[in-house]
């Protein structure tokens, strides 16, 4: 993953009396949130799943490079789904990551890349340990 010491990280969500949150990253990226079931775009749960998918795909590329297999990989796709709890509080109780590694690799090499990607990925590592969330007011 990218060196977090050299890249500002963080996000701010701004929400008015009506409408949906607008998200701005510490580096100036912008994203609007949607919540309607038929609206195209991302809701907060999608963003969490997307973060895991993006991290796992980038980590797989790093893993392939570490293993000397980078030239054998044409494309990596990480498809992530989440299982929501049936009881309170609202939360995900599990995630499924399906890694598709396209290239001239055998099954064992694909599996090795996927497992190493999970070890490298900051998002999967963070989700695995239930990090502390601190809430304050300004």
Automatic annotation (TrEMBL):
<dbReference type="InterPro" id="IPR003718">
    <property type="entry name" value="OsmC/Ohr_fam"/>
</dbReference>
<protein>
    <submittedName>
        <fullName>OsmC family peroxiredoxin</fullName>
    </submittedName>
</protein>
<dbReference type="InterPro" id="IPR036102">
    <property type="entry name" value="OsmC/Ohrsf"/>
</dbReference>
<dbReference type="InterPro" id="IPR015946">
    <property type="entry name" value="KH_dom-like_a/b"/>
</dbReference>
<dbReference type="Pfam" id="PF02566">
    <property type="entry name" value="OsmC"/>
</dbReference>
């Amino acid at each position: 993953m990218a060196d977090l010491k050299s890249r500002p990280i963080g996000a701010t969500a701004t929400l008015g009396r009506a409408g949906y949150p607008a998200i701005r990253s510490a580096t100036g990226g912008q994203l609007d949130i949607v919540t309607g079931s038929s609206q195209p775009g991302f809701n907060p749960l999608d963003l969490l799943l997307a973060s895991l998918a993006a991290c796992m795909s980038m980590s797989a590329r790093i893993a392939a490079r570490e293993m000397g297999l980078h030239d054998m990989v044409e494309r990596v796709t990480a498809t992530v789904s989440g299982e929501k709890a049936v009881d309170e509080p609202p939360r995900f109780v599990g995630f499924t990551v399906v890694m598709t590694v396209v290239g001239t690799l055998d099954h064992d090499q694909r599996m090795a890349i996927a497992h190493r990607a999970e070890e490298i990925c900051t998002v999967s590592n963070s989700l695995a340990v239930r990090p502390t969330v601190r809430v304050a007011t300004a």
